[in-house]
Amino acid sequence: MTGDEVLARVRDLRFQRGRRWIFDGVDLDIRRGQVTAIMGPSGSGKTTLLRLLGGQLRPHGGSVQVAGQEVPRLSRPELYRLRRRMGMLFQSGALFTHLSVFENVAFPIREHAELPEPLLRALVLLKLEAVGLRGARSLMPAELSGGMARRVALARAIALDPVLVMYDEPFTGQDPITMGVLIELIRRLNDILGLSSVVVSHDVEETLAIADYVYVIADGRLLAEGSPAQLRASDSAAVRQFLDARADGPVPFHYPAPGLAEELLDGEGP
Amino acid sequence: MTGRLQALGRATLDGLQALGGAVLLLGRLLRGATVVLVRPRLLVEQVYAVGTLSLVIIAVSALFVGMVLGLQGYYTLVDFGADDSVGTLVALSLVRELGPVVTALLFAGRAGSSLTAEIGLMKATEQLSSMEMMAVDPERRILAPRFAAALVAVPLLAAVFSAVGVIGGYLVAVGMLGIDGGAFWSNMQSAVDVTPDILNGVIKSVAFGFVAGWIALYMGYTAEPTAQGVSRATTQGVVRTSLAVLGLDFLLTALMFD
Predict the structure, then answer these.
(1) Which residues of A touch B (CB under 8 A)?
(2) Predicted local distance difference test score (pLDDT) of residue A179
(3) All residues at 6 or more sequence positions from B53 whose CB lies less than 8 Å from its CB, including other chains
(4) Member of which family (chain B) (predicted)?
(5) Where are the domains of chain B?
(6) In a designed cystine with A131, which of A139, A151, A250, B137 is the match (CB 3.0 to 4.6 A)?
């Protein structure tokens, strides 16, 4: 694999919160033109990984490179220049509640380019058309369903024509139809606009359906990687537990605690 | 014992850290506030939100405060046969003290609390994070114009407060208690000077606007991103602003009128 094909490269990533290592030596590549999925149980640091890629957090060790630039070493202006080429879809959508759908999508364009109003309008309508919500442009975020809000946020994330779009749990809490729409959108936008996408999710089926390459993270380490087909064929116990949604396995069902008998007989505390 | 010492040490360190954070934020707010020179619209929108929308509460409160001052002043001065000076008393109390102080306290309750809640909720719903990811600095785009607006709005509101308060005093003293209108105004005019009275009042209100905006924004920006966190930050913001304004008022008064 030549360097040009890799848009983002993470090497020996180490990041801790308090005393807990969220990442303890993780390597991964985000390849151009592909949908790369990062999967793992809740609390495995998937969202943290996106924030590290976007430079909102600094790693405690290792290297995070995007488009050939070492993200943690960038100055603020350099980081902002890089972020103009990145789009991020937050789990909550994070739409600006005081602005209409149209103004939400127009926001990043207005902030970064002084376009004449007719051109701006055309751009915003095209972005909204891409997510099928041109007709909803004058609604306020409070009037949107969860799925629509996420699609508006997606239109906003691609407003500046980014090269990399990051999706934080795009499928969580969506009905099956919306889920189908989002899957279709992520794949289509990636291919038509020539983007590279990173999807962070724990929705196994949906993620495997759109990903070109999948990384599974648990306990701060890379558990497995490969194409969806390779993962489905994997016989690693940890991968199986995650893909088959088994309650107990290498990832324990119980939060660490002293023995049950000991605690019940002890009878003190909450 | 060790536990208590530890808790004391932790509380001290946390307090110092918060203070340091607030000062650093202030530096960035001051630098960021230059954005309103390039984009004055941001300032106008915020002055409307924190200033214009606070006008009613400021005017109504001022009217009552002025009326009470007129009454109290009259009953005290009439014993000395100085009831003609009630206009002077009302005006001096308002421009030197009550105008800036009560305005700042009302501002903290009406506009400061809404600033804290707004910023806290924007943070809790990841709106500030998403702005950062769009390469838009939320401190410059969202916080700084609000800070500048507080700085502009509080002195203007204090001026309105003093003016309406004087009218309230006039209504009571001249309209109700029968003091001569000419004496009311002429005594006031000869006793109230631009410096030190009005100028010092303006300096105070600028200082209070500075403190009110800074505390409200800091509390919102550092609020824990939960419902409980935002509500606690809002309450603490109002309490801290009120205490800071009253303390600062004493300091400034001591410096100005010694």
Answers:
(1) 54, 56, 80-81, 83-84, 86-88, 90-92, 94-97, 107-108, 111-112, 153, 156, 160
(2) 85
(3) B110, B111
(4) Belongs to the MlaE permease family.
(5) 21-67+101-169+194-256
(6) A151
